[in-house]
Please model this.
Amino acid sequence: MTNEQTLVPVLAVDDDSSDLAELPIGNDLGFLLAKLHATGSQLTNVTLAEFGLKERSFSVLALACWDRHPTQREMAALLTLDPSQIVALIDELESAQLVERKPGIMDRRQRILLATAKGRRVYSDARAAVGETERAQLGALTPEEAETVKSLLRKVLLHT
Amino acid sequence: MTNEQTLVPVLAVDDDSSDLAELPIGNDLGFLLAKLHATGSQLTNVTLAEFGLKERSFSVLALACWDRHPTQREMAALLTLDPSQIVALIDELESAQLVERKPGIMDRRQRILLATAKGRRVYSDARAAVGETERAQLGALTPEEAETVKSLLRKVLLHT
DNA sequence: TCTAATTAGTTGAAAATGTCAATGATATTT
DNA sequence: AAATATCATTGACATTTTCAACTAATTAGA
Model:
């Protein structure tokens, strides 16, 4: 209620010029990413709560299901997280028996993460739900536009 | 050094199939936004350190420079932040004399935020620097692609 | 080989952020 | 006038981020 009432005068589309572009930062990549990320993760966290997961643990579980089993160090790099955060996330998943740590073969310092059967089952269901949430978030776009935006974001990421 | 050594085997482009798409979550909007936002804000925070700002305070300063002076409540909604966080950010900017709180005209409960002359000067310089950082981050894209991706992101945001 | 330097995972502490309920001052509604 | 609602603010509490240190294991150098 309040949100709409106070927000409308600023962001409303009651005249044609009314756009994000009016906002001084409305066209800043940083602003767009921050806001989309914030609202998006809230949404997917709600979705994932049903599975006892959050965006973070979900992504770690996904990596555990990957056939190319990355080390924790690689996970940290992939997810742009501190290695210590990975530890905590894995502890959580492990105590929920979705995941198992196995010692590395070449290098016994490292740990390889394996999803349990239960873990793979949960992941599969959670992934479907997350996919729906994503489609909802991209609801304003045509399927082609959605693919375009994701493809461009991937391109940016690969370059970095 | 280490990062490259450990990361390369996973994300390298030494064979053609090597892509983000290999990653189970490499095509997830949530992952893309999280990672781009994380790396992007680190970059812009480095850029903004020179001005004594961070991504957050920069965006609040930008709103203070806006001719349509939003209330703190509106700022919170615009930036997807809790009103209490806005308070802290403004306190910071105010003690740096970049910004002034003025009581609302219609409603004396609310505060209107005005940038000082110094604030507008700093904002103008900071904005230019942030613009460069953004162009650097989007370096992999052509100018048209960059405009496309931002325009699509704006579209998604408006719909939400 | 023996030693020194480096690396993977882990722990824990400190700083930053996010979330939420309560408060005093003001507006609005009844 | 009284009850209700809203705005900025405060303070409490949880979560996340950041960073330094520790161990066990590996690698590099003399």
